[in-house]
Amino acid sequence: MTYKVVVSPDAERDLDALLRFVALDNLATARAFAAGLRRRLKTPAAMPKRCPRAPEDGLDGLEVRHPIHGRYRIIFAIDGHTVVIPQIRHAARMPRREGRTR
Predict the structure, then answer these.
(1) Domains of the chain with CATH codes
(2) Structural contact between residues 25 and 18, judged by C-beta atoms closer than 8 angstroms
(3) Measuring CA to CA, how many Å separate 84 from each of 31, 52, 93?
(4) Residue 64: in which H helix or E strand, if any?
(5) Which sign, positive or negative, has the C-alpha torsion 23, 19, 102, 72?
(6) Does residue 51 have a pLDDT over 80?
(7) Are 22 and 90 in contact (CB under 8 A)?
(8) What residues have CB less than 8 Å from 99, skipping those under 6 apart?
(9) Residue 102's pLDDT is what?
(10) pLDDT at 42 over 70
(11) What is the phi-psi region of residue 65: left when phi exceeds 0, alpha when psi lies from -120 to 50, beta otherwise?
(12) Kind of pairing, strands 63-65 and 68-69?
């Protein structure tokens, strides 16, 4: 079964900010990294449960997982047959907890 993947506006903003940050040092590297990350955003469509559970798992009663791309976590929740990607976070950032935002 194929899941529908929905990338939230916040996750798109995270990706744009990451691209701008890396581009300060090397535009070609930033473009290549962003292209790889965009491809990785599509991988949960086939088998989302193969990705490890995230520390945020269980918040709001959702199953939360996170594939890793470089030093970044692609956080997503499985909702029926849809994978929702609310954000992309640097792996060194503290996990989101209930009642806290980014």
Answers:
(1) 4-90 (3.30.2310.20)
(2) no
(3) 24, 15, 20
(4) strand 63-65
(5) negative
(6) yes
(7) no
(8) none
(9) 43
(10) yes
(11) beta
(12) unpaired
